[in-house]
Design brief:
globular; Rossmann fold; about 5% strand; alpha/beta
Length: about 140
């Protein structure tokens, strides 16, 4: 199964210092990359590149991320994202438009979502998303 990697996971991997819990996340991301299972979205690429102060760092990250093609979005993704937003809001669950777009793309394409954002756990109570868990084999 392909894995849609959320911004927070990428950000964890790009930190200068990594604690034990973060190391497991980074190791899992590396394994998924090596397995060719990563899905990149343009909106996640934009989030990762936004706010970088140094032009040198920006270019380095931009160039590294170019190894991952942006997955193409269709009109139905945006429509489904709005439906999911409305469904969760009726249940008292709030989330960003970006998060619901990630959910819609994952649902339409049968992708899992790799995230550390606890909002997705809340969403999963009301919408059918698969959340990728860090595998522990051999660690």
């Amino acid at each position: 199964m392909k894995i849609l990697v959320d911004t927070c996971i990428w950000s964890t991997a790009f930190r200068k210092t990594i604690d034990k819990d973060s190391k497991n996340i980074v190791d899992e991301l590396i394994e998924l990359i090596n397995e060719g299972r990563i899905i990149m979205l343009g909106l996640i690429r934009q989030e990762l590149l936004s706010g970088i102060r140094s032009e040198k760092q920006f270019k380095r990250l931009r160039d590294n991320l170019r190894a991952f093609e942006d997955y193409p979005l269709v009109t139905e993704d945006y429509e489904m994202a709005a439906e999911l937003f409305n469904k969760c809001r009726k249940k008292g669950i709030q989330g960003s438009n970006t998060d619901f777009l990630i959910c819609a793309i994952a649902i339409r394409n049968n992708f899992s979502i790799f995230t550390a954002d606890k909002d997705f756990k809340s969403f999963s109570e009301y919408i059918k998303i698969n959340l990728h868990k860090v595998r522990t084999h051999g660690r």
